Amino acid sequence: MITVALAKGALLKDSVRRFAAAGLDFSALLDADNRQLRVPSTCGRARALLVRNADVAVYVAYGQAQLGVVGYDVLKEHPLPVAQLVDLGFGGCRMAVAVKATSGYSRAADLPPHCRVASKFTRCAEAFFADLDLPVELIHLTGSVELGPITGMSEAIVDLVATGRTLQENGLVAIDELFHSTARLIGHPLALRLDAGPLQALVDRVAAAGSPPSGP
Amino acid sequence: MITVALAKGALLKDSVRRFAAAGLDFSALLDADNRQLRVPSTCGRARALLVRNADVAVYVAYGQAQLGVVGYDVLKEHPLPVAQLVDLGFGGCRMAVAVKATSGYSRAADLPPHCRVASKFTRCAEAFFADLDLPVELIHLTGSVELGPITGMSEAIVDLVATGRTLQENGLVAIDELFHSTARLIGHPLALRLDAGPLQALVDRVAAAGSPPSGP
Predict the structure, then answer these.
(1) With a CB-CB cutoff of 8 Å, which residues 154-213 of chain A face chain B?
(2) How many distinct structural domains can be found in chain A?
(3) How far is A190 from chain B (nearest CA, A)?
(4) Is residue A19 part of a domain?
(5) To pair with B128 at 20 to 30 A between CA atoms, which of A47, B6, B19, B37?
(6) pLDDT tens figures, A129-162
(7) B49 touches chain A (CB under 8 A)
(8) Same domain, yes or no: B83 and B157
(9) Separation between Cα atoms, residue A55 and residue B117, nearest integer Å
(10) Is residue A120 part of a domain?
(11) pTM to 2 decimals?
């Protein structure tokens, strides 16, 4: 039986739609009353594991799921031995450097050396500022990163920006971009190599299903 | 002005009650409609920062909050230069090793060497198994750790257990305890040293207020 690890949260609805278009119905996961973390597909030939965004690649890397859907941002921040199979197109957002709108900085290279930068993605931020040759002090936060500049704890943040509304509401502005992120279909390399056909067929169907528009 | 960092989630209600008993009313934080992350006390002499559990000690360590309330478990997992001032008593839970009820293991030392252990608290787990002199492979997860043994990814988990209901619902059983955790009042060491009186007076009032029973 094929197991697919899907991330709770923003990617779930589009993930379920994409697998539905590929012939596997996991719509029970979208039921607000669902408390199950393992849900069989309606056809009974596959099942979904509902896990945290950051855990999808872990289950795939350890072979507990043969496939998974996760944001490219998470794969960049927590590299794991999984195969990136398909860029699913949805869940688009960008990893950006943001500062207070009143700060006067217009790009990351303007930031003062050794300033503090708060982020949930400190590895991505570390690589970016190392490339810039700008030494900064990284502060790891797990949420509400916009509080960094608001409280004065940090000069800048590195965070995911989708609509930009959170930045705007908090008087922040994006001044530089690290990379663009979308949802990816990932796979367990050994499972793909040992596959007699059905796994690759499913990957092909997911790839062919295209990215349906996100809506209510 | 005194700033207090409070954790979203399970500790919030008791934290607000305890500060209310000490003379600072942050009850606006309990309003379900509240979207503000910085809320002034009713008297206007202090304010609360509403942040993630794991971030409370960060804001206190960097001096953006002089005081904070956070679980001992988080302080153990992410050591930061903050002063532990008062054991607040509420938020009691234990960090435990749990396995499948059908596994036959009755204590952590029974686990096979080099088995996999999944946890959100991999540093605590690492120290515990090092003390036991039992080599294990730790798998870091960010949520729903009980899926580790259920999917067969790990032999055991190390996780916080409050009522034990989650373990029971998932056919797991606790076989060993790492430590007991409760909420702690923490402080910024320099702020405490430079304090002319009001900060210590607040700490004393919070300590004296005792732990009101948790209720609906």
Answers:
(1) none
(2) 2
(3) 16
(4) yes
(5) B6
(6) 999 999 999 999 999 999 999 999 999 999 999 9
(7) yes
(8) no
(9) 15
(10) yes
(11) 0.91
